[in-house]
Write a structure and sequence with these properties.
six-stranded antiparallel beta sheet, two-stranded antiparallel sheet
């Protein structure tokens, strides 16, 4: 329980706080949703923002295209590490989004979206709760 909590906290704390850090210290550019990842481990990109897995509709992680700096003609494609909490709050294909980019490494970018940051934050809180349970369980 403790190990899983540490893993969840580390993974989702990065997805929560790095976009906020890049908003303060990096570039903010306008990107565009170019597709959605088909599954958890599938590299294929789909056009639909949600899919059915085990009979339930699930939100897919967005894939987005963004310029490497404000006013630049060069662009990169990135895949979001998190999905929206619900299919209702998911992004639409070709929707314009705010992307925050690290100044020194333009390949490090996040969609600066409320639904993605809140989803990561809630998963991080679950990880902290699991760490607490793991520590109290052993005592």
């Amino acid at each position: 329980m403790f190990g899983l909590g540490v893993f969840l906290t580390y993974t989702f704390a990065r997805n929560t706080f790095e976009p906020l850090w890049y908003k303060v210290s990096g570039h903010t550019v306008e990107g565009r949703i170019s597709g959605f990842l088909a599954g958890r481990n599938s590299p294929s990109v789909q056009r639909g923002p949600d899919g059915v897995r085990k009979g339930k509709r699930k939100a897919r992680r967005p894939v987005f295209v963004y310029p490497i700096a404000p006013g630049s003609k060069d662009s990169l494609e990135a895949r979001s590490a998190t999905a929206a909490l619900t299919t209702i709050s998911n992004y639409a294909l070709h929707e314009r989004v705010t992307v925050v980019v690290d100044k020194n490494a333009p390949e490090k970018a996040y969609i600066f979206g409320f639904q993605l940051i809140i989803g990561s934050f809630l998963a991080m809180l679950l990880g902290l709760f699991m760490i607490r349970l793991g520590l109290l369980w052993r005592l």
